[in-house]
Each structure stands twice: as structure tokens, then as C-alpha cells.
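Give me the fold.
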Amino acid sequence: MKQIAREEGYTLIEVMTALVLLFIVLLPSSYVISYLLTNDNGRNQIAAANLAEEMMEKTLHTAHFTAAGRSTQVNGQQYHVHRSVTEAGQMLRIDVRVYHNDEKIPILEIYRYVVVRGAVP
């Protein structure tokens, strides 16, 4: 009797099952990402995060630990970025708030603590 050699690999059923499971997982996540990128609120949050991080990085890089503010326009939207610095013992707390248009409540706020060596401004 002739014996048939067993071939290694995946069956069609296994491949189809894996594809269906992958589709079930990836489809909802693609909707969430698409919603964030096309939604005005999502775009505002992304722009605000970029503006806040930019001001924080400039502050830390230049060591200008003073209050400041600026207005800028991103994608046709007006944003106001404000930095405040408060003393906390041997540290400084740097707060950066981003406002959309003339709203009173910030759409994003970040802060960092910086250890101060020597005199506090």
C-alpha cells in the first residue's frame, strides 16, 4: 500500500478563521481612529496637544520660567496658549493651557515640575 506523505501548513478553514477574527478586531479600531481624525473635537484635541507640547518644550529648552501667552491659528481655528509658572519649594510647576477661540475653559492642560538649582525667579 502506498502511504501519502503528510504536508505541513495551514488548512483553508484555519486561514479563513484567522482572517475573520482579524477583521472583527481591526474594524472597530479603524472606526475609532477615523472618528478622532475627522471629528472637530478630535482635531481640536490633537492641535491643542501639539501646541501645548511645543510651548512646554520651548520653555524647558530655553529655561524661560516666566508667564507667557500667545495666539495662533491651526487649520483655520484660533487657539490661545498660556503658560504660568508657580513656585513649589525647590521646584517650579509649569502649567500650559490651551484655549479654543475665546472660551473660558481650556480644552487641554499639561504641567511639569522642574527642579530649580539656585535662586528661583
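Strands lie at 68-74, 77-88, 91-100, 108-115.
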